[in-house]
Amino acid sequence: WGKVERLDDGDRMLASSMLTSLEDRRDATFVRYALLVDANARSKRLAPRYELTTFYGQLRHIFVLKLPPAAELDLTEETTLILAAVTQCKITAHNDLDMHYYREEGPLEVVDITSVQCLVGRLRTTTKKDWVIIDRSGSLARPYFDPD
């Protein structure tokens, strides 16, 4: 698939793999997404402690999987799973205005599409070495994960 739109008049996000490069077009491929990350992942002796973490990256692909009923997956009926392949931006700095700086992208990771929250803007810095991500969504657009 090439695009997905958040419900209730949300952003329309595009998969970069489906686009041709046009310099004068708004880039609707950079997104903010949130994942639960184990804060104790480096210590095998400690129990997992999950923290909601915000990431930024470029939406590369959108995959739609239709899973048949399967007892081993506890699926009693056909289920549709939508996944997003995102290249994470390696944030090097940020400020109080929700501007986040990066120079490199990380590896491609596949996440549930529901973790992708909104589009973000980005600009090249004056030194042309870094990019700045501008997140105008505000704290009210942040997800909340119920620990239960």
List the topology elements.
Layout (H helix, E strand, L loop, with lengths): L2 E3 L6 E3 L15 E9 L11 E18 L11 E16 L4 E14 L3 E4 L1 E4 L6 E4 L14
Antiparallel strand pairs: 1-2, 3-4, 3-7, 4-5, 5-6, 6-9, 8-9
The strand line-up of the biggest sheet is 7-3-4-5-6-9-8
Q: What coarse outline follows from CA principal-axis ratios?
A: globular
How many individual β-strands? 9
Rounded to the nearest angstrom, the radius of gyration is 17 Å
Contiguous runs where pLDDT drops below 50 for at least 5 residues:
none
Q: From N to C, what is the helix and strand string?
A: EEEEEEEEE
Helix content: under 10%
Structural class: mainly beta
Largest sheet: 7 strands, antiparallel
Q: Mean pLDDT across all residues, rounded?
A: 83
Folded structure, characterized:
- There is one protein chain.
- This protein is mainly beta and 148 residues long.
- The chain has one domain (3-137).
- Helix content is 0%, strand content 51%.
- The chain is built from no helices and 9 strands.
- The protein has a 7-stranded antiparallel beta sheet with strand order 7-3-4-5-6-9-8, with no helix packed on it. A two-stranded antiparallel ribbon has the order 1-2.
- It starts with a strand and ends in a 14-residue tail after the last strand.
